[in-house]
Structures are given as C-alpha cells and as structure tokens.
Amino acid sequence: MTKRTVIRGGTFLTMAEGAEGTTAFAGTLTMRGDRIEYIGAADVEVAPDDEVIDGAGKLYMPGLVNTHGHAAMSLLRGLKDDVSLQVWLQEYMWPTEAKFTAASVRAGTMLAMLEMLKSGTTTFMDMYDHMDQVAEAVEEAGMRACLNRGVIGLCPEDVQRAKLDEAIRFAKTWNGAADGRITTAMAPHAPYTCPPEFIAKFVEAAHELNLPIHTHMSETAREVEENAAAYGVRPVEHLRRLGVFSRPCLVAHGVHLTDEEIDILAEHGVGVSHNPGSNLKLASGIARVTALRQAGVRVSLGTDSAASNNNLDIFREIRLAALIHKGVSGDPTAVPAGDALRMGTVEGARSLWLNDVGTLEAGMKADVVAIDVTAPHYQPEADLVSHLVYAGSGSDVTDVWANGKRLVRGRRCLTLDEERIVAEANAALRRLKA
Amino acid sequence: MTKRTVIRGGTFLTMAEGAEGTTAFAGTLTMRGDRIEYIGAADVEVAPDDEVIDGAGKLYMPGLVNTHGHAAMSLLRGLKDDVSLQVWLQEYMWPTEAKFTAASVRAGTMLAMLEMLKSGTTTFMDMYDHMDQVAEAVEEAGMRACLNRGVIGLCPEDVQRAKLDEAIRFAKTWNGAADGRITTAMAPHAPYTCPPEFIAKFVEAAHELNLPIHTHMSETAREVEENAAAYGVRPVEHLRRLGVFSRPCLVAHGVHLTDEEIDILAEHGVGVSHNPGSNLKLASGIARVTALRQAGVRVSLGTDSAASNNNLDIFREIRLAALIHKGVSGDPTAVPAGDALRMGTVEGARSLWLNDVGTLEAGMKADVVAIDVTAPHYQPEADLVSHLVYAGSGSDVTDVWANGKRLVRGRRCLTLDEERIVAEANAALRRLKA
C-alpha cells in the first residue's frame, strides 16, 4: 500500500458544489496514491509511516485549470506588444513560429509548465505542433493536460491529409498516457484557418476515436464578418452545420456572440474558454460571460499563450474575470468572486471532460495547491475567497501536488530543473533569432 | 560624509523622458544621503567604506507611486464584495468606518504601508481621518506620502468648521515633515459630499497655505447626474467655478467625462488619478484614459482603498491600465506598456507635485526598487518593460529604498515589524466588529 500524506491544521477550500464549496474551513486532508482519501474538519489518527504536513498558515485548494493555451509560445513572450493584430501576427509571430523545431517546442513548453506549476496550475489544455515533445514534457513534469495537435488547413490537400493523420496518430498514441494524466482531443485550429470540408474530417475522426473537439471561435469581430461573407453564416452556425457540436466541444475565446449563438452553444453543451487577458491585450473585445453563464454555457478560463497575455498565472485571469464584467456592465454583482474561482478550478476541469478533478473531495484525484495566507495582502482574516480572487496571485502558491505527487515544495519545482529550463529557453530563442 | 551605496552589475530602467527612459541597460547606480549620485553604464571605483550591492539578476527602477487611496481602510479588505454600491457603503463600509478610532487608523495604515512597500510602492497619496496617526506611521515606515484630511461636509456648520480647522492644522503641521518625505494637501472629499460654499473654504485655505487640492470627482454616472440636477452643471464646471482648479489639483477617478470637461482639466493642468481596479470592481465604469492623455491631461495610477480593490499593488493597476483600454477601444496600441509604467512612476510623482522623485537620475531622490527578473515569467530575456507590465507584479519586488534608506531587504521590511502589524490589524478588526 502506498504511503499516505496527511495535511493537518490547514485551512481548506473544496470548490465542491453549493455554498460549502466556497467556504473555507479548518481541518485535515489525506491523500494516498493518486487520490484524496479524506477531507474534513475532524483530525485523523496518524500512522508511523504517514508523511505528515503542518498546514498552519496555508490555504489548500484544488489545482487550477487553464483551458486554453499554446505552451511552446512562451518562447515569444515580449517579442512584440502593442501593435496591430496583423503586424503582430505577420511580422513577428508567424515568421518566428515558422522556424520552431521540436527542440524549440520542448524548451518553450518546459518554461510554460514551470511558470504554470509555480503559480498553482496543475491541469492545462494545449494546442500546438510537435505535440509528442509536449506530451513527453508533461509526462516528466507530472502535470495533467489535455493535448491536441492544432491544425491549420490553409495548404494543399496532401499536406492537409498528412497533418490530419499526424493529429490522429498523436491523439491515439497519447490518450490516457502518463497514468491517465494525459488526454487528447481533435483540434482544427479555427473556422477561418480550416476549409469546411477539412473541419468535417476532424469531426469524423473525433467520432471514430471517441474524442472531444477543441477549436478557436469568434475571437475577433473581423473573423466573424469574414465567416458570414464566405459561408453565409456566422461561426457558431457554421460549426454546428459541420457537426463540430455533435462531439463534446470546447471553443476558445467566444468573444463575439449573439443571443442566438449563445443559445446554440448552451443547447449543444459547448464550453467556452474565456481568455480575458489575451482578449484585452490583443484588443479583441470582452466576451459576454454573464450572458453565457445565464444561458447555462459552461465558462472556464484560459491564459492563451504567453505571447499574447503575457503570463500564465490563472489567478490573474480569475481576477480579470471578476473585475471586467462588473466594469463593463455597470453591475457590481456580475461574476462574484466565488464564481470566478469556480471558473478557474472545477468548471475548468469539467470543460476538459475531467470529472474527478477540480474539487477537494474524497475519491477525487489529488491535485492540491497550498497558498501562503499569512502575507499582508491576505489580512485581515476575512473571506478567503475574496482575498484569493481580488488580492491573491500565483506568487502566493508555495506547494503543489498533482495526481497525488508533490511537484512544488516551498516554491521550488521538484520535477523540473528551473535553472536549466530558463537557460534552455533563452538558448532556444537565440537560435530562433539567429 | 554619509556612506555611499553602490549597486553594481545590475540592470536599470530610469523612466526618464524619451525612449531611453524605458530602455533597460546594464550598469551601476550610486546613492548617498537621500539622493542618487550616479547612474550609468560605466562602473565606478569602489571606496573601502562603500556599501556594495551585487545587482546580478535584478532590475532596478524608480519606486512606484500610488496617487489615490485610503490606507486605513485596509482593515476592511474583504469585509463585503460583489454587492451594489449602496448596500456596500450603507450596510458595510460606513457603519464600520464610523467606529474607527485613531488606533484603528494606525493599524490599518501600517498594514497598508507594509503591503505597499513589499510590492514596490515608495510614495502614496492618502486621504482619510485621524491623519496625525497616518503621518506618524509614514515617518516610522520611511515612505514618502502626500497626506490630506479628507473632509465630508454633510454636517452642521460648526462641525464643518471644526473639520476644516483640523484639516488646516494637519496640513500646516506636517507639510515638509519627516525630512521632507511628507507633504500635505487640502481635500474636500467630493462635490457630492461637500456643499459648494464649504468647498470654496478649502480653496481659500489652499491659497493661504499655498497647498494643492485633492478630491474625488466623477467616479459614478449617478453622482454626475445628481450634480447637474442640484447645481445645473456637471462636476468639472462646478469645481472650476468654485476655484478648485485655480490651485494645483489632482482629482481621483474622473471616470465620466465629456470632451469639453477633458479640455477644461487640460487647460487648468488638473491631474487625474486613474483607479482601474476599484472602478471595475465597484462597476463605476472605465475612465477615458486615451482621450485624457491625448488632450494633455496627466494621468497617474491609484489603487483606491483595499476595501474596493482589494490590493495595493500598483503593478496590477499598471497592467490593468495597459489592458482594459485596448480591450474597450479595440485598439491594441492604446496605452502601450511604457506609458502604463510611466503612469505608475514618474507621472505619479509629478501628479503629487514632486519633481525630484519618479526617475532614476543623478540628483533625484533615491527611491529605488529591485525586481527579481530571474523568475520564469520574466523569461526569455526580451523587452523588460513588457515583462514588467504584462507579466510582472509586486510579488517580484525584493528590495526597496526610499529617500536613500533601505526599507526592504530580500522581501523583508526593515522598518516595519511584519508579524506585529498583521496581529494588530486583526485585533483592530475584531474590536471594530465587537
């Protein structure tokens, strides 16, 4: 029987359903193997070979979930900002990304995982190229991830076919790998980068492989207009007709949506990964999060890549989500703190089709994050959910477990060599620029 | 002659005028007494009694400036969030504040200063009551502050008179105190909380004492409408007629402004303290920062109090300022990173009428902040201004000097007893709730 970990004398936030989930309480948590065995106010009897952790001064909560990103693009953080989207893409992002090798993807992904882990994210969605490198990196880091080969279909048919085959091979190879920490999805990049018949092939493959679909959708007003001009319908109806929503589906962004489109998403159980930081920085607009949630659409949070954010701290997206919808609507009750925190934890897990992740409950996977709540910005002692959302950040994270394994201890990553990753990321960027 | 401090082998950002000010360079900085003696790329010869600091892995920049807040209200952080403004004020803030004693103000202010210092703020504007306590606390902490007794005039004439006298006595007593670190201003709280004739008395006093004026203005649409209904003009014209702009003046918020009002502010050199976090959280709206800056109005950044923010980290306001105006306008070039950083440093200092603070230049006051730029979110090495604004936060601050004195070393505050301040803040809140 594997060793048990016992966290005693800590404060806990389960994020389980109902008001109790967002009410912090003093208590104990035990985990064994990859699961939480017990969590509650009562103490437990400690056995001689238990690993006992003193939880004083710490708040324990579920690991955060980042539902949209491109980890490898961390190499491009700060390469260029504050220019028009076209200049940014055409003069900076695309020419540099075209030079990306498998080694650059590994270096960028390792840097991204280091940043995510240290700021409390245990699960992430990743859409990129050279995905075998990403999957191997996830296996090493100990994180949980839903990985997908994002395919742009603006190319000849034989190249399209090769990319689709690669996406299928990757999805089959890695689904359920790394003790189940890795799952996969099919990912046509976006309606504006994939011809309709090519998107239909992804839907077909997703049905055959019984996999979900992840794609970008309605990020900018321009792409929505162009979709309507090219196909006679806006992106939501376009994707619906292509059968994309006949699979479990998560769309990234969903900034420009009509009431009718929101109803279609709700009807088909399509999730929306809200990326407030990236949407603001690229001036794409502000998603209708309140309307989406009112219609019953599941909304989670994503950072997008560090090239457009420019960080991977989900706490910052949680705070943005809690702030901007109030400011824009004039309603200070919009997206309350507890809802924003759910979007970054349990709603994120459900959006990635993970039902045993995202809350601290007996029987759930042991993805646990410890927060130092002794810092001045967590004082005085009041509502810890409010403090986390409005005053906290990923910098307050001290310890992280994923799948029952400790990955961060006292702000140091145990599975990743921090100095080496930083050096390799810088070396990889120099090679790209050479 | 006082001992010299020499920081060698560091990276520096001066924030001086022109493109050079936002271009980081490797070099050396020396300070003696309360001033910077030298900053430049060249090394200096070190004398035996110099204090020499190895700047490797650190970025040194001017201390941040917070141009609007109510420090003592840190005691109310997280007391209540996500309710309507009226419920928040009438049921939570005002009843609790009514019980504030001089001791509560001291406890809350100490907590606020601890948070500000550790996140790199060296100068702050503070408007509150029991200001002698605040001034004494600033003297102890070693910070720089522009302090003002914020007066609400919804009371009988004799009480008004007593408050005005107290504000005058405070402003005279403390202006220039603490080796010049403390300056003062006259502060009628807002046009909607002070009758016109009472505001006029503050203007008169400000002229007599040769002091600037600080006030809240046009924070919510409702107060603007009510001002127009009560006095026939919107707040800007109302304050102009009362002579408020005949003094150097800084208004907080300025969310709801017409083009004509912006022109009046520009014409009279009135500064606007932009408080994006608080304005979003209270659903007040989004200030027209791009229009203000284009019209030549000096815009700086404030956190407002921790009751409505709920943190005092100016880096977060810098990031919000750089993000939200892009998202709302659809223009990704709005408020570029360098401009946002200027708003949080040199523009903040100028907004508080401090001409020898806010940049790292020889002869300026030695208010210096060190940032750990080895962390993953500062990688790869690229534009440090971009990294600071879009990826950084106050948690990256490791060391702080103000007026040439080291206040924070290795993330520990040297002038303030952290554990005691945290304990006293919690005790003060318990007394308020009792």
Automatic annotation (TrEMBL), chains A, B:
- Record-annotated membrane-spanning stretches: none
> What is its EC class?
hydrolase
Described function:
Catalyzes the deamination of 5-methylthioadenosine and S-adenosyl-L-homocysteine into 5-methylthioinosine and S-inosyl-L-homocysteine, respectively. Is also able to deaminate adenosine.
Name by which UniProt lists this protein: 5-methylthioadenosine/S-adenosylhomocysteine deaminase
Which catalysed reactions does the entry list for this protein?
Answer: S-adenosyl-L-homocysteine + H2O + H(+) = S-inosyl-L-homocysteine + NH4(+); S-methyl-5'-thioadenosine + H2O + H(+) = S-methyl-5'-thioinosine + NH4(+)
Q: Where does substrate bind?
A: 97, 149, 161, 189, 219, 304
Q: Cite the binding residues for Zn(2+).
A: 68, 70, 216, 304
Domain Amidohydrolase-related residue range list: 60-406
Source organism superkingdom:
Bacteria
Q: Which SUPFAM superfamilies does this one have?
A: Composite domain of metallo-dependent hydrolases, Metallo-dependent hydrolases
Q: Which gene encodes it?
A: mtaD
Cofactor(s) for this UniProt protein: Zn(2+)
Q: Any idea which UniProt keywords this protein has?
A: Hydrolase, Metal-binding, Zinc
